[in-house]
């Protein structure tokens, strides 16, 4: 059944299926490209309905990481891993350590980090079996929670969107809808409130909503994600799982700008054309949500938060550059972002064919 996915020419360098029966580990590691360096990307722990679904997700996510890392100016390739199962019931020290041994077996071709369903404490456990892991706790010499600079980077990308659309990066008075206020979304809300934006939120978790409301009582709450999409907004920020921009939601969307933290927001490539036809400015997700990978990659050099934050601040300028190229070449922003990333992978990757002394 998984043969069909590979039959579509995914372009990946390597896909590894990992299983440890004793701990219950079933995982897939996808390495899309190492043209710029070792493939860096997080580990998603999720109860996929089937192995095919898990494989499709890891292939899409690892390719996205290659483009994200290239566009962020990092000398790192793109990879991702998924662990199949419910993290609330299946996660254990034995399972995480077994996973770490599989990561170690790749000898540095893949470097892992946190993602949906995995946390800093989990990476500390994985690190007991492999040195190819980032996103560890500060006590363990790591960068801590990568959500911090992910949210900061999305905020910088949103400021660039505002400048492109309205002639000023200021978000004061702008009505911003944040769909999903989990690890990244609730931090993004904090930046927006501080900037003077009027924020509306939605989430399937009542606890997540209450956490935001406790910190920011002025924030409005939509009944659900569909209501938020139909609200009059200046900016819509998808910050939950992928596929938020699809054939059902985009025709209902009333925002002028889409800029959020979720990965793989476009349900299919043609959706961006619909956004453009409707006059909605779309900031490619892997462009603006790169703050987290910038944060954990800095860990590879001895983590310095101020240095990592300065690098994440550049997301503002990169977003502006993507919009400028899109206008110059008459293409949607996602196409322009892809072209910039592909050029860097091709140009810098080519240099690796030049032999240098060890």
From TrEMBL:
<dbReference type="GO" id="GO:0000166">
    <property type="term" value="F:nucleotide binding"/>
</dbReference>
<dbReference type="InterPro" id="IPR006095">
    <property type="entry name" value="Glu/Leu/Phe/Val/Trp_DH"/>
</dbReference>
<feature type="binding site">
    <location>
        <begin position="180"/>
        <end position="185"/>
    </location>
    <ligand>
        <name>NAD(+)</name>
    </ligand>
</feature>
<dbReference type="Pfam" id="PF02812">
    <property type="entry name" value="ELFV_dehydrog_N"/>
</dbReference>
<comment type="similarity">
    <text>Belongs to the Glu/Leu/Phe/Val dehydrogenases family.</text>
</comment>
<keyword id="KW-0560">Oxidoreductase</keyword>
<dbReference type="GO" id="GO:0006520">
    <property type="term" value="P:amino acid metabolic process"/>
</dbReference>
<dbReference type="InterPro" id="IPR036291">
    <property type="entry name" value="NAD(P)-bd_dom_sf"/>
</dbReference>
<dbReference type="InterPro" id="IPR006096">
    <property type="entry name" value="Glu/Leu/Phe/Val/Trp_DH_C"/>
</dbReference>
<dbReference type="InterPro" id="IPR033524">
    <property type="entry name" value="Glu/Leu/Phe/Val_DH_AS"/>
</dbReference>
<dbReference type="GO" id="GO:0016639">
    <property type="term" value="F:oxidoreductase activity, acting on the CH-NH2 group of donors, NAD or NADP as acceptor"/>
</dbReference>
<feature type="active site" description="Proton donor/acceptor">
    <location>
        <position position="80"/>
    </location>
</feature>
<dbReference type="InterPro" id="IPR016211">
    <property type="entry name" value="Glu/Phe/Leu/Val/Trp_DH_bac/arc"/>
</dbReference>
<dbReference type="Pfam" id="PF00208">
    <property type="entry name" value="ELFV_dehydrog"/>
</dbReference>
<protein>
    <submittedName>
        <fullName>Valine dehydrogenase (NAD+)</fullName>
    </submittedName>
</protein>
<keyword id="KW-0547">Nucleotide-binding</keyword>
<dbReference type="InterPro" id="IPR006097">
    <property type="entry name" value="Glu/Leu/Phe/Val/Trp_DH_dimer"/>
</dbReference>
<dbReference type="InterPro" id="IPR046346">
    <property type="entry name" value="Aminoacid_DH-like_N_sf"/>
</dbReference>
<keyword id="KW-0520">NAD</keyword>
<feature type="domain" description="Glutamate/phenylalanine/leucine/valine/L-tryptophan dehydrogenase C-terminal">
    <location>
        <begin position="144"/>
        <end position="353"/>
    </location>
</feature>
């Amino acid at each position: 059944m998984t043969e069909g996915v590979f039959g579509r020419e995914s372009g990946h360098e390597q896909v590894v299926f990992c299983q440890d029966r004793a701990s219950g580990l079933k995982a897939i590691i996808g390495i899309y490209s190492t043209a710029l360096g070792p493939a860096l990307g997080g580990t998603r722990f999720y109860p996929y309905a089937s192995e095919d679904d898990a494989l499709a997700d890891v292939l899409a996510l690892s390719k996205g990481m290659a483009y994200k890392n290239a566009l962020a100016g990092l000398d790192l390739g793109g990879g991702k891993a998924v662990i199949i199962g419910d993290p609330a019931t299946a996660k254990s020290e034995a399972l995480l350590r077994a996973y770490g041994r599989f990561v170690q077996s790749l000898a540095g071709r893949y470097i892992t980090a946190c993602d949906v369903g995995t946390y800093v404490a989990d990476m500390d456990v994985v690190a007991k079996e492999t040195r190819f892991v980032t996103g560890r706790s500060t006590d363990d010499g790591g960068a801590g929670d990568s959500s911090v600079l992910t949210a900061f980077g999305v905020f910088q990308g949103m400021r660039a969107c505002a400048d492109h659309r309205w002639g000023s990066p200021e978000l004061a008075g702008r009505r911003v809808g944040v769909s999903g206020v989990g690890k990244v979304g609730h931090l993004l809300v904090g930046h927006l409130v501080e900037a003077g934006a009027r924020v509306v939120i939605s989430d399937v978790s009542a606890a997540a909503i209450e956490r935001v409301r406790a910190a920011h009582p002025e924030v409005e709450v939509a009944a659900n994600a569909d209501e938020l999409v139909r609200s009059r907004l200046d900016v819509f920020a998808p910050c939950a799982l992928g596929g938020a921009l699809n054939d059902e939601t985009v025709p209902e969307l009333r925002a002028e700008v889409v800029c959020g933290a979720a990965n793989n927001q476009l349900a299919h490539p043609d959706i961006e054309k619909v956004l453009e036809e409707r006059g909605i400015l779309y900031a490619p997700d892997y462009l603006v949500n790169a703050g987290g990978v910038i944060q954990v990659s800095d860990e590879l050099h001895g983590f310095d938060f101020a240095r990592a934050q300065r690098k994440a601040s550049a997301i503002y300028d990169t977003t502006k550059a993507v919009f400028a190229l899109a206008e110059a070449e008459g293409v949607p922003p996602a196409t322009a972002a892809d072209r910039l990333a592909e050029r860097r992978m091709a140009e810098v990757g080519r240099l690796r064919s030049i032999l240098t002394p060890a």
